[in-house]
Amino acid sequence: MKEAVIVDAVRTPFGKRDGSFRDTHPQDLAAEPLKALRERNGFEPETIEDVIYGCVSPIGEQGLNVGRLAPMVAGWGDIVPGVQLNRMCGSGQQALNFAAANVMADQHDVLIAGGVEHMTRVPMGSDGGEGSGLTDTYFDHFDERTHQGEGAERIAEEYDLSREELDEIAVDSQRRWGEAWEDGRYDDQVVPVETELEGEEIVIEQDEHPRPGTDLETLSNLPLAFREEGDGFHHPGNSSGIVDGSSALLIASAEAAQAHGWEPMARVVQTEVVGVDPVTMLKGPIPATKQVLEQADLDISDIDLFEVNEAFASVVGAWLEETGASWEQVNVNGGAIAHGHPLGATGAMLTTKLAHELERTGQDRALSTMCIGFGQGIATIIERV
Q1: Which of 213, 242, 315, 375 has the greatest CB tally within 10 Å of its CB?
Q2: What letter does residue 245 receive in the DSSP assignment?
């Protein structure tokens, strides 16, 4: 089996909803990481054998196969094929896992994996249709359909997590992002984007959603988002931010990387995907983590860094309780509560963060995991080379 390596990994800044990217077309946003990867690594378009892009709402401006259109919009001509996939919130990470599997199986040597989501111009849920979006037959097998916010609330109840505990996770996420940004830890992975806003040319260089000065007192006064006061736990301050952004990784076989003179950042060790109860729906990172570790013959103590997507603070709280991992090793440079969760791009972005942090710190292994709508979980282990 061939070895799949991460040669480089980048993302755009994440624009807040109705923020600086509101006049930027999703296809243009999707093209930005591709242009950056080419500039940084000096390849010709024909080197790329496929582009695999995640997108959770592939309709309207995000339709027509954004994976194919992104390299065309990037100016790569018509030679580079592309595909769009949707594993809901795990889409960008699934793109990476599929790309790595292709390399490991000796089907391809050089690919780009990533994702895009413009949540301002194509709002979340746009692809669901009317009503529940489900056939009546679905309810022959499952008693109810919940939304993700209610799933997060039920997880908080199941694990006896208090609102204050969840708010502490949120405050840490914001603080860690602020410290990482000021320390320059995002400099090598976040690429500036030149675009237009209301007819004026602008350059976006920094995430727009974070509030690094957030404190517990501020969060304690925010109204609940999903339940009546006194009966819930989550509010906008301890839930992921709605943002616009894209991310991509250059994936290659070890042999191809050597032939092109590229120095890989990390190799993909193991991937996993699981299904879980679609009612609470967000507990997938727990079994996904356990199974990917078993497949790799590793223990939780063998992992130096973790990214657990902060879709909601209770997802992270439950994962910490079940795995016994240290919070000090998780989301060390801030998470989605701070920088936001651009659905189809997030999974690629989480692995991008880990690859750069392994390289910066000299640590060995990292694990990324995400919860997914309708009850799934996804996980990836990478190792510094």
Answers
A1: 315
A2: E
| Beta strand spans in the chain (E) | 4-11, 15-16, 51-54, 82-85, 110-118, 193-197, 200-204, 243-253, 266-275, 305-308, 365-372, 376-384
Spell out the alpha helix ranges (H) of 54-184: 66-73, 91-104, 148-158, 163-182
In sign, the C-alpha dihedral spanning 210, 215, 218, 222 is positive
CATH numeric code, 4-123+241-266: 3.40.47.10
Question: What is the percentage of the chain residues whose pLDDT exceeds 90?
Answer: 96
pTM above 0.90, yes or no: yes
N- to C-terminal Cα separation, the chain: 17
Q: For residues 202 and 195, is the Cβ–Cβ distance under 8 A?
A: yes
DSSP state for residue 24 in the 8-state scheme: S
Distance CA 91, CA 87 (A): 4
pLDDT, tens digit (0-9, with 9 covering 90-100), for 330-382: 999 999 999 999 999 999 999 999 999 999 999 999 999 999 999 999 999 99
Query: Looking at residue 5, what is its pLDDT?
Result: 99
Q: Range(s) for CATH 3.40.47.10 in the chain?
A: 4-123+241-266, 136-187+267-380
Q: What would the CATH number be for the domain defined by 136-187+267-380?
A: 3.40.47.10
pLDDT above 90 for 102: yes
Q: Note the pLDDT tens digit of each residue in 132-155.
A: 789 999 999 998 889 999 999 999
Q: Which residues are designated catalytic?
A: 89, 341, 371
